[in-house]
Design brief:
The chain is α+β, with helices and mostly antiparallel strands. The chain has a single domain, classed as PH-domain like (Roll). It contains 2 helices and 4 strands; from the N terminus they run E-H-E-E-E-H. It has helices at about 25-40, 75-80, and strands spanning about 5-10, 45-50, 55-60, 65-70. Strands 1-2-3-4 form a 4-stranded antiparallel beta sheet, with no helix packed on it. Strand 3 and strand 4 (about 65-70) form a beta hairpin. It is globular. The mean pLDDT is about 80. This is PTB domain-containing protein. InterPro entries: EPS8-like, PH-like_dom_sf, PTB. One of its GO terms (biological process) is positive regulation of ruffle assembly.
Length: about 80
């Protein structure tokens, strides 16, 4: 049986890593976030972050609708999933 940890978070944005959108690295995504913030186009969305040994999931707090899921081997990938400053 897998254990799932759940946290209330304020989600800012999700960016697809896509060279055609000039987002190839985490730093590129941060630059885009800073640009959007400078134009007052950033707001937070209250979400539930669920983490277990198979996936990271973001769900809307009010509707419980899945907004994002990322299936990974978390033991080897977690440093690349999030960047907090």
């Amino acid at each position: 049986m897998q254990e799932t940890s759940q946290y209330h978070v304020e989600h800012l944005s999700t960016f697809m890593m896509d060279k055609t959108e000039s987002i190839a690295t985490v730093d590129d995504a941060i630059k885009k976030l800073v640009l959007l913030d400078s134009k007052d186009k950033i707001w937070t969305q209250e979400m539930l972050l669920q983490v277990n040994d198979k996936a990271v999931r973001l769900l809307d707090v009010d509707t419980q609708v899945l907004q994002l899921t990322h299936r990974v081997d978390l033991h080897s990938q977690i440093p690349g999933l999030c960047r907090c400053t």
